[in-house]
Amino acid sequence: MADWTEKYRPTTLSEVRGNDKARDALRKWAETWDDHREAAIVHGSPGVGKTSAAHALASDMGWPVMELNASDSRTADDIKRFAGRASQNQTLGGTGGRQLLVVDEADNFHGNSDYGGSREVTRIVKEANQPMVLIANEFYDMSNSLRNACREIEFRDVSRRSIVPVLRDICRQEGIEYEDDALDKIARETSGDLRSAVNDLQALAERNERLTVDDVVMGERDRTEGIFDFLDDVIKNKSAEEALYASYDVDETPDDLLNWVEDNVPKDYRGDELADAYGFLANADRWLGRVRATQDYSFWRYATDNVAAGVAASRRHDHGGWTRYGPPSYWSKLGRSKATRNRRDAIARKIAEKGGFSMGTARREVMPFLAEMTHHCKPRELTVRMTMVYDLDAAEVSFVTGSGEDTNKVQGIVEEAQERRDDAVVENAGGAFAQFESDEEGSTADDEPATEGEAAADDDGDDGQTTLGGAADDPGEPSPADTDSETDETDDGQSGLDDWL
Ligand SMILES: Nc1ncnc2c1ncn2[C@@H]1O[C@H](COP(=O)(O)OP(=O)(O)OP(=O)(O)O)[C@@H](O)[C@H]1O
């Protein structure tokens, strides 16, 4: 299915919702540009429509857009070239020579090495003979002189009242039935970020024929009441068998159950019981891998056996009192739709291969770190390196960082990573010794653990059957998931990060 944030991107300013004041200011700025010739800084949180507004404005005005992307490196020279190109283009076309220069991520010029870049932007902003919009998340990350040279236009977080009608329109156009409360809840959950709201709506619509308020989970506590009772049952109160029965009443997929239990069990279990519990969770993960590989959902129950009965059976001590259980940290990204899961797993596979640990470890222990550390592609350098090391494409970078796949930011990062990878290949072609040297320097994770992974895959089928009650049938030929599911939960999930930190 097409990405709805693209499909429903505003094409004219009047479709930009929830920021009427900023929108009007932008329009006025453009219409009077000949008089003031100032550049504009459009700033605000991610996903509130800044980029869309700039492009919609250009289209309303009939101005072609010329963009300085995050992908263009941003030294003083690059910016001069950009400005030069822009003034050349001025003589082309029949648009009265006007075009809109859009500089994305204008708050990112401020880093040390780019300082020249920042100064150059300021100079160009002052001298530009074309309307120019600088887009930024953080107004105050920009230099004083740059800020002073521009007109400030602030985009605020989009209110719930403005988000709901956007979601409603989309539902109508897509022919999706919905409860009003469900849309309201999505709007509340995504607090001001319209892009996230649209993304969440799409994920939910892929999974449900009719959107009800109960479908909207997104880490909110009230709907998951049942899960907290279930955690108490498994971790504290119930026998293995009772815990298994309790699991039948919880309205969560086995993938989600696994994540909940895995994140919360270490709050109570210690030592051997924790190790045993992890063993069962590792088994569960293998069964879920088989489900994904074979689409045979009958394996689900073996996963649930392990998660519920297995973890309850591992308990050796009383765990009284009250524990603050919480949703898995990576919750909002986990298993929301099949497409999301597939993407998540594709990334986990790359990380697992590179770092030499299991898919499960990659997914649960490495990816959350990456997501945290490169949130909204910041810091950019780290994001580029991650992209390079794990060979991620734009969709994958977008998944990990939470930035839009088609944004210049993400596209630029992917391009830069590709360039650097190409350069690295050329450097490495320098001779056999170059390779040795770089190995010695510590990128050791590559080869040896892969063999471990294969070895583990061999006896994987057997391990998987240590479900309670021996209910498991051998699922047959090793599926692709088997190679993934070497699950040494003691892996230090972070070791794979060494390469790019
Ligand atoms: N104000 C809005 N009105 C209508 N749609 C919006 C609005 N804001 C965001 N969207 C939706 O979210 C998508 C992403 O918005 P956009 O890229 O313009 O946000 P942004 O503020 O530039 O975010 P970022 O800083 O992360 O690039 C749009 O394609 C559109 O589907």
UniProtKB/TrEMBL annotation:
Residues 464-473 have a biased composition (Low complexity). InterPro entries: AAA+_ATPase, ATPase_AAA_core, P-loop_NTPase, Rep_factor-C_lsu, RFC_lid. ATP binds at G44, S45, P46, G47, V48, G49, K50, T51. Keywords: ATP-binding, DNA replication, Nucleotide-binding. Residues 36-159 form the AAA+ ATPase domain. One of its GO terms (biological process) is DNA replication. One of its GO terms (molecular function) is DNA clamp loader activity. Belongs to the activator 1 small subunits family. RfcL subfamily. PANTHER family: CHROMOSOME TRANSMISSION FIDELITY FACTOR 18, REPLICATION FACTOR C SUBUNIT 1. Heteromultimer composed of small subunits (RfcS) and large subunits (RfcL). Part of the RFC clamp loader complex which loads the PCNA sliding clamp onto DNA. This is Replication factor C large subunit. It comes from Haloarchaeobius litoreus. The lineage of its organism: Archaea, Methanobacteriati, Methanobacteriota, Stenosarchaea group, Halobacteria. The gene is rfcL.
